[in-house]
Amino acid sequence: MRGIVKRVKQGLQSGLPLRGGLWAYDATHPDAPLPVLPGAAQDWTDSGFPGVSRMRSINVDDPLWEALLGVGLPAGRAERAQAEPAWELYAPLARRDRPLVLAQLGQSLDGRIATVTGHSRTISCDEALVHLHRCRALVDAVVVGVGTVLADDPMLNVRHVPGPDPARVVIDPRGRVPDGAKVFRDDGCRRIVIQTARVPRPPGVEVVEIAADGDNGLPPRAIVAALAELGLRRLLVEGGAKTIARFIAAGAVDRLHVGIAPLIIGAGPVGLCLPPIERLDSAIRPQAQVYALGRDVLFDCMLGSSGRLAEGPGGSAGLSGP
């Protein structure tokens, strides 16, 4: 109790902004009062965790977004843009000279991505949805599993920001996606399905056949390689949870965006469920940048070689079904 009173006094003496009657403090630095961040877009704070940056807000104006889309920055803006959080977050996706696999998911404080009935559309805030559409506009293709298509019938296009629509890739080993699904609509974008069975698809849909890895489904690294041969080198793995988990466990993800919304669902499917480990020494410990997206918090995690590679040449993750 004395410690709490001490920190309140320090907060009052520091002149830091008061948010909802409270100051937050870093438990690893108990003598340093810090402003509460949710809802305080202008505030910065040290994370207090090794490898995790202090939180910053994302501000993407038209010139910066046009530059990320390849239009170029106006004179005098280029140097300033390099130091902006938005540039740091999105520039790796915008680079055309190297491949990149980004996985993206939004979840609650307790790690849920939906209720027990499957309701999930209002977990993430509007700013987080805009962020997702920025990511779509900057990659070559969006990849989803068959479960996401059957549950949500997503459009997978870019609507909330200016920018091109990506190619749409569905992992559907046994041909469960109906021909009338929105991902197969003929709107000028490339439509690709990854499968094992010889299943006829709607006209114009490109079919890539990959051998299954036993009971573990299609090997993620084989999918990434096959899409690269089609000229799709910058990928956004958008869902569902099993597909994202398989790609991470196979060491096929370079960056992971995890958006955390300030709500507690209590029960329902979790965002990530990887093969179990016995000791925390084996846990994935990525370097991470932290950003404020409206009321949500976004973790930009650099996986790369820090991810646990699955055993075997095919990248089996020991998970069932995409």
What does the model show?
Helix content is 23%, strand content 21%. The relative contact order is 0.16. β11 (287-293) and β12 (296-302) form a beta hairpin. The chain has two domains: 1-36, no CATH class; 47-306, Dihydrofolate Reductase, subunit A (3-Layer(aba) Sandwich). The protein is an alpha/beta fold and 322 residues long. The strands form two sheets. It has a ten-stranded mixed sheet with strand order 3-11-12-10-4-9-5-6-7-8, sandwiched between helices. It is built from eight helices and twelve strands.
In a few lines, what is going on in this structure?
By secondary structure, the chain is an alpha/beta fold. Helices cover 23% and strands 21% of the residues.
CATH class of the largest domain: Alpha Beta
What is the distance, rounded to the nearest whole angstrom, between the alpha carbons of the first and last residues?
50 Å
Strand content: 15-25%
Output the CATH topology of the largest domain. Dihydrofolate Reductase, subunit A
- Which quaternary structure do these chains form? single chain
Number of helical stretches of at least 4 residues: 8
Walk across the major sheet and give the strand order: 3-11-12-10-4-9-5-6-7-8
How many domain regions? 2
Residue stretches low in confidence (pLDDT < 50, at least 5 long) are 3-9, 11-45, 305-322
User: What is the CATH homology-level superfamily of the largest domain?
Assistant: Dihydrofolate Reductase, subunit A
pLDDT averaged over residues: 80
Q: Which structural class best describes the helix and strand composition? A: alpha/beta
Main sheet summary: 10 strands, mixed
Question: What share of residues is helical?
Answer: 10-25%
* Topology pattern, helix = H, strand = E: HEEEHHHEHEHEEEHEHEEE
Give me the Rg, rounded: 21 Å
Shape: globular
